[in-house]
Amino acid sequence: MESPEAPGPLLVACALGIEHVALRRGLGRPGPDHANGGTDAARVRLLRSGMGPQAARTAVTRALAGEEVAGGTAVLATGFCAGLARGMRPGDLVVAEETRDEHGRTRCTGTELLTTALTRRGFGGTVHVGPLAGTDRVVRGRGRAALHTSGAIAADMESAATLGAAAAGTARRPVAAVRVVVDAPGHELIRIGTLRGGISAFRVLRGVLPAFLEWHRSLLLPWR
What we know:
Shape: globular
Order of helices and strands: EHHEHEEEHEHEHEHH
Radius of gyration: 17 Å
Strand content: 15-25%
């Protein structure tokens, strides 16, 4: 009897240097996902795209151009975000059901599996699930409220562009987005306490890689 196929590579994309540092530290931490020679972690590529939707779109398109099997690389966008709903706090997690921007919507893969994997690890904050809006600037005040009225629960500048670029031309590629809330309606970046919120978000982002690996293993991507 043949063993199940292993999933293909996982591309984890973020925009900022501080996000990349957190993820890189998390990837190097010992744990059950690094057993057996770290084969799960070895299939992960961290990509720092740069800030903004255009930079994200360009970087992801370039990163996927040389993949061995078209659509065989799973793509997960991550980093910090602005929470849009009242009650959200720095350090909460957002798992996207879909990303949306002016270019359209991209449905995410295995949202329930990813949410379960993150919840089980108990980061201390709440895991929120819903639409993630793409913007071309940091949102505050009325802009934040308008996006929330549209149905989005969080916003960032790169996730929608990252997933849109990843899904272009192939319906088979698994895509997902997980963001850590760094500011929210009651905890905006311009307010006192931002540093504490940023430290909390950094610590959470540093610990999410095992859940990403679990999601990735669950996909059992075709690798032919």
